[in-house]
Amino acid sequence: MFFRPRKKDGVDARERSLWGDLISMGMVFPIAIVLGFFLGQWVGGKFGHPGPGRLIGLALGVLSGFWELYKLSKRLEKFDSSSNFNNNINHGEDGKGDDEGP
Predict the structure, then answer these.
(1) What would the pLDDT profile of 41-86 be if each residue is shown by its tens digit?
(2) Does some domain include residue 21?
């Protein structure tokens, strides 16, 4: 299998799936917009008003694209909060960090 996680490389399988989500987002967003535009034009043409149908379909395509972006950001936020990335930052006793300002 191509996507079987290897134990020796030290990369979490969840991290790989998030990379796949990020890559696919570059395709899902424009496809949702274009598909909404043309489906709106087709439905609007069935009712005799292709212009408003295009605008409504375009708006629905943009909304669905942003909805997918929102869901992806929630998955990334959940992954980030459960990962050890934030735990590796060295904080001082007061929690403000190591560098002391001027």
Answers:
(1) 999 999 999 999 999 999 999 999 999 889 888 888 887 777 655 4
(2) no
Q: What is the DSSP letter of 8?
A: T
Domain that holds residue 38: 31-80
- pTM metric for this prediction: 0.63
Q: How many domains does the chain have?
A: 1
Angle between helices 50-82 and 13-46 (to 10 degrees): 170
3-class SS string, 23-72: HHHHHHHHHHHHHHHHHHHHHHHHCCCHHHHHHHHHHHHHHHHHHHHHHH
Closest CA to 39 of 29, 28, 50, 26: 50
